[in-house]
Amino acid sequence: MVLPIETILANLSRRGFVAEYYETKEDALQGIMAQISPSETVGIGGSMTVKELGLFDELTKQGNTIFWHWTDKSGQDVRPKALLSDVYFCSANALMDSGEPVVIDGGGNRAAAMFYGPKRCFIVCGVNKLVHGYDAAIERIKNVACPQNARRLNMKTPCAITDKCTECGPKQRMCRVTVRYSYPMTNRETHVVLINEKLGF
Ligand code: SF4
């Protein structure tokens, strides 16, 4: 069973993450925007959670320069620019109640930017991402998150068809790198924002 929210927030803080908690995504959006200066450049990883939060629109209204490959219309790959932004937003595929975000990436841009590049990073998670233990994190990612992401991307992975991971081969595989983020990088401000709503996959 997943630990109580107060314990999870304490575990995040104990590890050195800046732990934030909001009851609703509207509160979270307000709380996050209060911490972002219009002069800061912002990178965003592929994240349904960030999309559902409405962060892109608010940052655009505020005048931030944003590098997000989901919305960019330049025709260029802006993911390297996102990696060099002042602030980076993404989600995790699972958040262990021990205070450790876990991600599995196919492209690696999000995993990399979480711990290298941007000066500050915000990892935003709904409570649906909470799990107890590493095995549960991997189980969630492989059999809950990945199948939905594969369908969203119209990929024909086995998990997209059956909702079950078969540890498919390298040609079609989305799961290429796994990061268990146990402690934030030294001298790098890393926020974990937990929201008491179901957000993303
Ligand atoms: S390894 Fe393959 S089948 Fe398993 S979750 Fe990843 S993409 Fe899906």
Topology, pairings included?
Elements: H1 5-15, E1 18-22, H2 25-33, E2 42-44, H3 48-53, H4 55-62, E3 66-68, H5 79-83, E4 87-90, E5 94-96, E6 100-105, H6 109-115, E7 120-126, E8 130-131, H7 134-152, H8 158-162, E9 177-180, E10 189-195
The structure holds iron/sulfur cluster.
Iron/sulfur cluster binds at residues 142, 146, 157-159, 165-168, 173-175.
Describe the structure.
The structure is a single chain. The chain is α/β, with parallel strands linked by helices and 201 residues long. The chain has one domain (5-131, 179-195): NagB/RpiA/CoA transferase-like (Rossmann fold, 3-Layer(aba) Sandwich), CATH 3.40.50.10420. It is built from 8 helices and 10 strands. Helix content is 35%, strand content 22%. The strands form 2 sheets. It has a 6-stranded parallel β-sheet, with helices on both faces. A 4-stranded mixed β-sheet has the order 8-5-6-9, sandwiched between helices. The protein is globular. It binds iron/sulfur cluster. Iron/sulfur cluster binds next to helix 7 and helix 8.
